[in-house]
Amino acid sequence: MRFAFIHGHRHEWSIERLCQVLRVSARGYRAWTSRPVCQRQRTDLKVLVHIREHYALSNGSYGRPRMTMELREAGLDVGERRVGRLMKDNGIRPVRTRRHKVTTDSYHQSDIVANLLDGDFLAEGPNQKWAGDIRYIWTGEGWLWRQNWPTRRQATAAIFQHINGFYNPRRRHSYLGGISPLAFEARVP
Predict the structure, then answer these.
(1) Are 51 and 86 in contact (CB under 8 A)?
(2) What does 19-42 look like in DSSP terms, one character per residue?
(3) Whole-angstrom distance, CA of residue 188 vs CA of residue 183
(4) What is the maximum span of the chain, computed from C-alpha positions, in angstroms?
(5) CA 110, CA 72: separation in Å to the nearest integer?
(6) Fewer beta carbons within 10 angstroms: which end of the chain, N or C?
(7) Which residues pair with 173 in a beta bridge?
(8) What is the DSSP string of the chain?
């Protein structure tokens, strides 16, 4: 731990001075720097490469639990604590959205569509029940309402890309046991 501190601050102060303040020998520090990287550190670096790749593929939305599932599916033998430590140590944090905000306006002039599902979203098989409301979408800058896009075509393209490029094919849904909708549909006979 002390040698790592010295290594991190060697450009600010002399190594001899840092060693003297931390009460370690300069010879010990030089021996520490010449040691080969241990197996655990090498494995951590490999896992970190995979974490960064899957973090980018998830649009920055995966935290420790889903990231661990992704890595295990990719064939890596990792635990949640290790994944969490590597993500924390390297500043990899999931982009968090706010909790659901009720935005229903019951006093509107639009037609009300019949509620055919009546809250029963469980289906016997794929493509039997569909539901959704994408009049707005959360962004890092707040709620982005459909009419904020310059054109309807841009709004449609952006939402289509998000839903069909990530949310449906790749995103792990906790309701489905931590697997993507495509993987879930592949399991259904």
Answers:
(1) yes
(2) HHHHT--HHHHHHHHHSPPPHHHH
(3) 9
(4) 80
(5) 47
(6) C
(7) 179
(8) -HHHHHHHHTTTS-HHHHHHHHT--HHHHHHHHHSPPPHHHHHHHHHHHHHHHHHHHTTT---HHHHHHHHHHTT----HHHHHHHHHHTT----PPPPP-----SS-SSPPPP-SSTT----SSTTS------SEEEETTEEEEGGGSSSHHHHHHHHHHHIIIIITTT--BGGGTSB-HHHHHHH--
Q: What is the mean pLDDT of residues 20-31?
A: 92
Per residue in 149-183, pLDDT tens? 777 778 778 878 888 888 878 888 888 888 888 88
Per-chain mean pLDDT for the chain: 83
The answer on pLDDT for 104 being more than 80 is no
Q: Is the dihedral of CA 44, 88, 162, 134 positive or negative?
A: positive
Candidate ranges 1-10, 85-94, 123-132; pick with highest mean pLDDT: 85-94
CA distance 141 to 127: 33
Those residues whose C-beta lies under 8 Å from the C-beta of residue 159, and which sit 6 or more positions away, are 134, 137
pTM above 0.90, yes or no: no
CB 5 within 8 A of CB 16: no
Interval 125-156: pLDDT, tens: 888 887 666 566 666 566 666 556 777 778 77
User: What are 181's two structure tokens?
Assistant: 């909708």
Kindly state the tokens that stand for 187: 């399991």
